[in-house]
C-alpha cells in the first residue's frame, strides 16, 4: 500500500493497470474503455507501426520525407506555416508537379495566417495558382470573436479569442501528430512531442473526415484571379477569403456541434477491427475539444480517467508548455490524491520570453498560475515537507539553454510498490495522451483541439514511451514557494490585473 500524506488519507491499492486475461494475453488499462462511450471511434494497430521522434529536426526531416513520397493525398492541419518555410512550400510544389493524381488539403487558423504584412496566406498563393484543381487551403476563424467586437479588437490581440489549434500531418496512409506548428523554431530549438503512425488507412480516413468537417465551417483561400461565389467573403489585395459553408458564418454553432457529434458516431465504421493473423497490441482513441461549439470530450474523459488511475494505484506524468491546468483537472487530480509529476516551461523556456509589450508579461503570468496551483496542492497536504519528502504531487520547470518548450500531454503508469514519486515500474507507461491540447482553460473553451489516447500492451512500445518521458524530464528542475519568492520571479501588480481580465485566454 502507498499511504499518502496530509489531508489525503486514503490508501491506494497497488494493483497493476494492465491486467492479464486468463488466456495469457494482456489487455489495456480497463478504465480507459470505461470512460469512452461504446460509439466512440477506436483504432487498433501494431506497436511496430508507431515511431516516437525525439528532436525538432527529426520532426522536420520526417515531414519533408512524407511529402516527397506522397502519391495520392497530403493533408495538413496546423495553426500556421511560417513565412520563412520556403523549403516546405517548394517540396509541396515539386511533389504536386510530379504526381498528377496527388491532392493537397491544408487547414490553418485564419487570424494567425492573415496577419498584416507577409503572411501564411500570401505564401500559399503560388501553390493555389499552380494547382487550382488539386490544392485547397481553408482558414478557420473562431466564432467566439465576431460582430462589432471583432472590429474593435486590434489584430495583434484577436487570436486571444480562440484559434484553430489541431495539428495533423498526413500523407496517403501515414499520419504524424504533434503539438508543433510549421515554423523554423519548431524545427530547430523548440521542444515538442512527435508520434508517427505508418500503415494506418482507417486512421488517415478519420483525420481526413475531421479536417473536411471543419473545412466546411471555414473560409477558402483563393487568389484574386478567382471570383468569390458568395457575398460572405472579403478580399485583401492578393487573395479572396470565401465562406465554404451554405450556413451563414455567424450562425454555425448549432450545426457545427451536430456535425461534430455525428462525426464520432459515424466514424466507428472506420475503426480498425482486430487482426487474427497478427494481433494488434495498441489502440488509439481521438478526443475533440471544441468549447466554442460545446464539444467537450476532453473535459468529460480526463477527470474520470484521473479518478480511475488513482483508484488502481497508478501514477501520472503531465506536461504543458503553457501550464495553467484547467480548473476541473486540478480538482480531479487533487481530490483523487493522484501521485503526479508535472513538468512546466520555465520562464526562459516560454516562447514569449523577452517579447516586447504585453506579450512580455506572459512568462510572468504562468509563474502566477504555477504559484496558485501549488497553493492548492500545499493546502491539500500533497506537497510533502520542506524537502519534498512524502510529496504526492511534484512540480518541475523545464529549462535548456537556447531552447523553448512546447510539449504537452500525459503518461499513465501502472502501480508500483515503492512510495517514491520517481518509482516508475518497467517497462514504461501503458497509456499516453498526445496532440494539440495544452490542458488549460484556453484549450478547453477557446481553441479547437484534436488529441489522442494511445494505450498499449507492448513492452517494447512502453519502453519507448518511458524513454520519451525521461528525455523531457532530463531538463526539469523541482520548484516550489522558495523559487517563486526570488526577486526575478516576482509577479507585478499589472500582470495580476491583466490576468484578472484575460485569464481565460492563457
Brief characterization of the structure:
By secondary structure, the protein is of the alpha+beta class. The chain is built from 16 helices and 24 strands. Functions in the biosynthesis of the anionic phospholipids phosphatidylglycerol and cardiolipin.
What attributes characterize this protein structure?
single chain, 506 residues, alpha+beta, Endonuclease, Chain A, ten-stranded mixed β-sheet, 16 helices, 24 strands, mitochondrion
Distance between the termini: 39 Å
Strand content: 15-25%
Number of helices: 16
CATH class of the largest domain: Alpha Beta
Give unreliable regions as ranges. 1-5, 9-30
What CATH calls the topology of the largest domain is: Endonuclease, Chain A
Structural class by helix and strand composition? alpha+beta
- Structural shape: globular
Give the name of the CATH superfamily of the largest domain.
Endonuclease Chain A
Q: How many E-type strands?
A: 24
Tell me the Rg in angstroms.
Answer: 23 Å
Integer average pLDDT: 89
* Main sheet specs: 10 strands, mixed
Any overview of this molecule?
The protein has 506 residues and is α+β, with helices and mostly antiparallel strands. The protein has two domains: 47-268, Endonuclease Chain A (Endonuclease, Chain A), CATH 3.30.870; 281-505, Endonuclease Chain A (Endonuclease, Chain A, 2-Layer Sandwich), CATH 3.30.870.10. The chain has helices at residues 30-34, 56-69, 86-98, 110-113, 120-130, 147-152, 184-188, 201-215, 253-266, 297-311, 327-335, 362-379, 441-445, 459-473, 481-484, 493-502, and strands spanning 2-3, 11-12, 43-45, 50-53, 73-77, 103-109, 135-140, 168-171, 174-178, 190-191, 194-197, 219-223, 233-234, 239-243, 282-290, 295-296, 315-320, 340-345, 393-398, 404-405, 408-413, 431-435, 448-456, 476-478. Strands 3, 15, 16, 17, 18, 19, 21, 22, 23 and 24 form a ten-stranded mixed sheet that branches. It has a ten-stranded mixed sheet with strand order 4-11-9-8-5-6-7-12-14-13, sandwiched between helices. Strand 1 and strand 2 form a beta hairpin. Helix 8 runs antiparallel to helix 9. The longest helix is centred in the last third of the chain and has 18 residues, at 362-379. The radius of gyration is 23 Å and the shape is globular. Residues 1-5 and 9-30 have low confidence and may be disordered.
